[in-house]
Design a protein that fits this description.
Blueprint: E1 13-17, H1 24-35, E2 38-41, H2 42-49, E3 52-56, E4 61-64, H3 66-79, E5 82-85, E6 99-104, H4 107-116, H5 121-132, H6 135-143, E7 149-153, H7 157-173
Parallel strand pairs: 1-5, 1-6, 2-5, 6-7
Antiparallel strand pairs: 3-4
Length: 178
């Protein structure tokens, strides 16, 4: 299931996406540890490197500057060996990724996770609606070749463990295209 545009990369690049609260960072961190790939949390990168256009009071988050983010990541992505962790996926170049994982969570589980994070009612409702309508899965399918898009259920520790095992196997079996 290797992507077709990996040039001379010796290690794969994975995009871990999904609605906030689906387990992207948990899964990405564990996968990075088990495979020695580099975990890049886009939210943290945006804050650390000031790759945003200010704060959105309405959504209670930074307005990321997608061009600055892509410029910052270009060399690392060409090198390979990255897990990019972000809730959006349509602005990254298609050539960067060999696998696009879309984590999905049952709405009641997601609601509880986001409520526990202290999300405002508006932000909570917006994110649960995104999950109900599978916005991130559709975005991934529209932005990347469908044969590299992998939706995975992420409701509990058993799902995360199973996903981690499957993804670790995928990384170990990945071969650069010639």
């Amino acid at each position: 299931m290797a992507g077709e545009n990996n040039n001379s990369r010796k290690r794969p690049n994975i995009l871990m996406t999904g609605t906030p609260g689906t387990g992207k960072t948990t899964t990405s961190s564990a996968l990075a540890e088990s495979t020695q790939l580099r975990h890049i949390n886009i939210g943290d990168l945006v804050k650390e490197k000031n790759l945003h256009d200010g704060w959105d009071d309405d959504l209670d988050c930074y307005v990321i500057n997608e061009d600055l983010v892509c410029d910052e990541l270009e060399d690392l992505m060409e090198e390979g060996g990255n897990i990019v962790d972000y809730h959006g996926c349509d602005f990254f170049p298609e050539r960067w990724f060999d696998l696009v994982v879309v984590l999905q969570t049952d709405n009641s589980v997601l609601y509880d996770r986001l409520r526990n994070r202290g999300y405002s009612d508006k932000k909570l409702s917006n994110n649960v609606e995104c999950e109900i309508f599978q916005v991130l899965l559709e975005e991934a399918k529209e932005s990347y070749s469908e044969n590299i898009v992998m939706p995975l259920k992420s409701d509990n520790i058993e799902d995360i463990t199973r996903n981690l095992s499957a993804l670790t196997d995928w990384v170990r079996n990945w071969q650069p295209s010639s």
